[in-house]
Amino acid sequence: MLTWIALTALLLFSIATYMAARRRVVAAAAGKPTSLHSLPGYYGTYAALWVGVPAALLVLLFAMFGPRLEAGVLRTDPPAAVQALTAPQQDVFYNDARAIAHGGRPSETIYDGALKAALEEKAAQSQRMSRLIEYGSVGLAAILALAGAFVAYPRVAPQFRARNKVEGWIAGLFIACSVTAVLTTIGIVASLVWESWRFFQAVPIHEFLFGTEWNPQIAMRADQFAGAGAFGAVPLFVGTFLIMLIAMIVAAPIGLFSAIYLSEYASSLTRSVVKPLLEILAGVPTVVYGFFAALTVGPLFRSFFNWIGAQLVGGPLDALGQYLMQVQNQMALVAGAVMGIMLIPFVSSLSDDIINAVPQSLRDGSLAMGATRSETIKKVVLPAALPGIMAAMLLAVSRAIGETMIVTMAAGLQAKTTLNPLDTVTTVTVQIVTLLTGDQEFDSPKTLSAFGLGLTLFVVTLALNIVALRIVQKYREQYD
Amino acid sequence: MTDAAVPTSAQALRHTVEARLKKRHAQEMRFRLYGRLAIIVALSFLALLIGRIVHQGYSTFVDYRISVPVYLDPARIDAADPTGANYDMMVAEAVLDKLDEQDDEFGRKAGKVMSIMSNDLGFQLLDQVRADPSLIGKTVTVTGPLKSDAALYFKGDIQRATPQDLRKLDDQQLDWLDKLQASGAVSSGFNIGFLTRSDSTEPEQAGVLGAIVGSAMMLLVTALLAVPIGVLAATYLEEFAPKNRWTDLIEVNINNLAAVPSIVYGLLGLAVFINWLAVPRSSPLVGGLVLALMALPTVIIATRSALKAVPPSIREAALGVGASRTQTVFHHVLPLAMPGVMTGAILSLAHALGETAPLLMIGMVSFVPGVPEGLTGAATVLPVQVFIWENASERGFHERTAAAIMVLLVFMIVMNLAAILVRRRFERRW
After folding, report:
1. Are B42 and A345 within 8 A, CB to CB?
2. B326: chain A residues, CB-CB within 8 Å
3. A329: phi then psi, degrees, rounded to nearest 5
4. What is the per-residue pLDDT across A207-264, written as a single tens digit (0 to 9) for each?
5. How confident is the model at residue A225, as a pLDDT?
6. What's the domain range around A294?
């Protein structure tokens, strides 16, 4: 609340500074506007920026990091009764103290005696601290704003290069925005590597990458009985690969052929109808594909295979029939096929771009020699576009590996090392979702293993993308 | 005499060439057919997908309501504490009265009636009595939805032909429903409740309002962050940045970020925003932050191509009359590129609207039975609502899942149409 009041006050003060600086420089010009270096507004903006920006940044930083700072200070000097608690209990204790201080809802833990006293003391301390941080940040911001005014206002004079200075600020803003993209990457890499590193301390990395049993059950509490858990990710990799393979078998030919037809044969009318329709297919959210897979394709495929099985039972292929009778909804084929449908427009639009980039002169040359159009496509256009098409396929593979919702809704949870498309398999992304939804304890290898899987996923997709983008770039240069 | 001079070998050659030509043309036809087939297959998948969802979901938009006059017996309602009374029972008895049924001493029939009426009716009575205690002793008519199983019977999903123990409702309940409908107590109409209620554990009381509001709040955060930052970053890279190692690095970086799987952004959000910065879990704020980071690369890429399309002559003219580079960009280049920028921004926001996976990581899967209170309160969003309902076991939720998808698709179509309109209306060809 105080933060908002402070920001509003700051805004008003900045506007006032703008007006004052502008009026000052106009008065100084004494009726000769040409004596000014910049337009009057730039002088005002210059002063307002000095007043507003540093102070606002300070307030926002404190609003963002204040709670963390407060929580940190709270833990610096634990009373003896709290020291006796285990680490998770201490977490609960401090959370409760802060909840009491800020009018939140504490957990249902019962504290008595020394702990209760400590809780009240810490709650009071938390309240004092947060008030101190709040008022402190506002006070500091006021000082900064005034200092900014004292720096900027006296400089405002007709010969002052106000526009260049303002543009300097704008350049700073530009660079800050561009750096956000880099910071995102750093954030992704740092968080994945850091949490994975903690995971690899509990589970050796070779066991994770080459172990063949995945069963991440671990006791939530120390006194609970449970197995130690097995974190061999090979079954997940195999499952992911299997589903990706099925998806590519569906998407690659259909996507490629529709791209060829659209770019080489279709009339402009057909193109103008078909391309937007394919774009709709591309725009459908993946959760919708997941729903379609789980409630339409899954039961359909199962009853189809069960029917075939029923025909075979009792015949020479009795064993196969028995097996087909027991096929489940969650078979790899369902998730793979639906993912393939999802990838069709992706493959098609990328291939379309690449085929269109093949110079017309190559086609003309081939057609002039008497080749038919299909011969031209097969012998001239496709070989010329091959590297680009390979890159498109790699991007599609990377998409398939990272796709989450379809497999979460339509594939199973059982980690099996199999290449049988009628079996249920699980994938890396399914496991990440299962491990991280619901309540988790952030120290158990079970939760941390999700970050290990995430890191693997990130590295693989990144490698695929880099290779694909390299190929596309090289190939583009070839014809430019 | 030339005819006679044609050697037989030439004729043979002609024959072979013609035969081969025929084969080649057949091959051509086949190849073209493959292309057509591919497109037909792709489009029929689209038709199947949409058709199936509409088929499963349209029935949600019809609901069946029942109106019953209920006598608020003063002997059973304590005026001082109206909450304690069993209103569901009173409703059930009122319905039994209407059906001319006598209940047995165990109240079995009332129990059976309760499982075809929504408990919303009881809540309505409670609310009315609370608001106006003078109603006690009078007869009040309440109108509310039937339980979803009963509605499924009217919709034809539960059929009499099915053996009794395989369906949720027994023969007696079906008879009652038929009788109620014949007496005019049951009416059907457009299910406005689906759009004005939020999530609930009872299918007939569940709606998408909370999810729509949550989605809107989250998209607002995403738009406010991703669009300005993305546009400024793209402008810098396209118009100002010197070509050196750093800007190359940023560029490669952005291209790769655009292809990072969305679930990785969820992991980032969990580790950085929730665990490190202590942003509240499952709030629109944290969802918007994660989706903003995800949408940023696409906004940047779209803005850059829009800026590239502005001809250099515009820049030269502005610089020629003495504008600075910043003025050139902000006064001339960016306004001219705006249609392309807006199209790209709307499309990437539409994509963010449909995104689910990263939101599961940041705790959006919780049950939120109301409209979110603010940017930091617990919320759910449309695609996640679809995911939650899809996992529910009641059959009534299946049609609601499909209906929620229809609502989601309507929003996406509206956004895409807006993008197309902006492009059509404002695009300039140079």
Report:
1. yes
2. 167, 170-171
3. -60, -35
4. 888 888 888 765 444 444 445 678 888 999 999 999 999 999 999 999 999 999 999 9
5. 45
6. 230-479
Best probe of the B interface among A374, A377, A430, A460, by most B CBs < 10 A, is: A374
Please tell me the distance from the alpha carbon of residue B392 to that of residue B367, in angstroms, as a whole number. Answer: 12
**How many distinct structural domains can be found in chain A?**
2
| Closest residue of chain A to B247, computed from CA coordinates | A178
Statement to judge: residues A272 and A388 lie in one domain:
yes
Domain-ending residue, one of A160, A191, A211: A160
CB-CB neighbors (< 8 A) of A436 in chain B: 266-267, 270, 360-361
B398 → chain A, closest CA residue? A295
- Does one domain contain both A298 and A404? yes
Residues B69-125 have pLDDT tens digits of 888 888 787 777 777 778 888 888 888 887 777 777 777 777 777 888 888 888 888
CB pair distance less than 8 Å for B354 and A294: no
pLDDT tens digits, one per residue of A349-398: 999 988 988 899 999 999 999 999 999 999 999 998 988 899 999 999 99
Please determine, for residue A442, whether its predicted confidence score (pLDDT) is greater than 70.
no
Residue B1's pLDDT band (boundaries 50, 70, 90)?
A: very low
Assess if residue A212 is contained within a domain: no
How close B40 comes to chain A (CA, Å)?
Answer: 9
Nearest by CB to residue B39, choosing from A274, A454, A465, is A274
On whether both A151 and A296 belong to a single domain, the answer is no
Considering A160, A183, A207, which residue would you say is the last residue of a domain?
A160
Size of interface A-B (CB pairs under 8 A): 259
Residue A53 is encoded by which pair of tokens? 């920006």
Please tell me whether residues A125 and A263 are part of one structural domain.
no
Q: Quote ipTM for the complex.
A: 0.89
Q: What is the domain-level CATH number for residue A276?
A: 1.10.3720.10
Whole-angstrom distance, CA of residue A312 vs CA of residue A296: 25
Q: Which of A276-280, A417-421, A459-463, B109-113 has the lowest mean pLDDT?
A: B109-113
Does residue A107 sit in the same domain as residue A235?
Answer: no
CB contact under 8 A, B49 and A178: no
Sequence-distant (6+) residues with CB within 8 A of B192 are none
Query: What does the mean pLDDT of chain A come to?
Result: 87
Q: Helix or strand or coil: residue B355?
A: coil
| Tens-digit pLDDT profile for residues B213-240 | 999 999 999 999 999 999 999 999 999 9
- The full set of domain ranges for chain B reads 2-58, 62-196, 209-426
Q: At what angle do helices A332-357 and A298-312 cross, to 10 degrees?
A: 120
Contact call for residues B193 and B205 (beta carbons, < 8 A): yes
Tell me if A284 and B49 make a contact (CB, 8 A cut-off): yes
Taking an 8 Å cut-off on Cβ atoms, the answer to whether B261 and A409 are in contact is no
Q: Which two tokens stand for residue B386?
A: 């679809």
Does residue A420 form part of some domain? yes
Mutation pick from B22, B23, B31, B423 vs chain A, by most beta carbons of A within 10 Å, is B31
d(CA A448, CA B324): 52
Contact A289, A339 (CB under 8 A): yes
Q: Position A80: which residue type?
A: A
Class of B209-426 in CATH? mainly alpha
Do A346 and A451 belong to one domain? yes
